[in-house]
Amino acid sequence: MSRLLDKYNQFDETDLWKKYRVTKDAEIRSYLVEKYSPLVKHVAGRIAIGMPQNVEFEDLVSYGVFGLLDAIEKFDPSREIKFKTYAMTRIRGSIFDELRSVDWIPRSIRQKAKQLENIIAMLENKEGKKVDDEEIAKELGVSMEEYNSLLAKLSGTSLVSLNDIWFLGDENDEVSFMETLESPMNMNPDNIIEKEEIKNVIVEAIQSLPEKEKKVIVLYYYEDLTLKEIGEVLEVTESRISQLHTKAVARLRSKLSKVKSAIQKR
């Protein structure tokens, strides 16, 4: 055990957080970084499972470190939220932000993802109900085999795309799919109601998904299970879970993009 862990583990952590919030003591900060750094590898490892081979695990870890540092600076110990839960959300968000910034997804794949999203939106608006795989494949003009192959190619993009952020005005006022832990005290008061509205839209969009797709989203993003673990829970293959996840993301993005556009026009 390191000197810092040995020194500070004997203290009540809530008291340490309160002290750090006031003093920004560098040694306490170093202790918190050291104590919670394993979370970065944990989150990076789970994200890496769904990434293409050209995405290096060590890169994901380095991206995640920024999220941990951000979590330490912004964590509010007065709220009834465990730091571990808060930090994992920030770490995941930081990794996804960096993946987007390096633009590792080929343009052709990005275009196909958008096409799938648009077709699902069009069909569901036209039919007034959830559409199945056969209907989507028919509209795409491909066989079911080609459709399943497309979903496999899009799987990596979908892991990133649900962490998109909605900016509401000030640079600190933001909402992402994963971010539901931000304290309203950190926001511009004029945007608090709008942020809550967006959260409600996200919840409603998830609830509207087909049952299996909804389970995949909840288990992956909120219960922190890997796609393989979700497959074991639902008793289907990992590749099938990946397909369900990709379709769920396309449905959610089509629903949320329309609402986002309407809100931003106000």
UniProtKB/TrEMBL annotation:
It holds the Pfam family Sigma70_r4. Keywords: Cell projection, Cilium, DNA-binding, Flagellum, Sigma factor, Transcription, Transcription regulation. GO terms for biological process: DNA-templated transcription initiation. It comes from the Bacteria. InterPro entries: RNA_pol_sigma-70_dom, RNA_pol_sigma70, RNA_pol_sigma70_r2, RNA_pol_sigma70_r4, RNA_pol_sigma_FliA_WhiG, RNA_pol_sigma_r2, RNA_pol_sigma_r3/r4-like. One of its GO terms (molecular function) is DNA-directed RNA polymerase activity. Residues 59-72, 226-252 form the RNA polymerase sigma-70 domain. This is RNA polymerase sigma factor. It comes from Leptospira meyeri. The lineage of its organism: Bacteria, Pseudomonadati, Spirochaetota, Spirochaetia, Leptospirales.
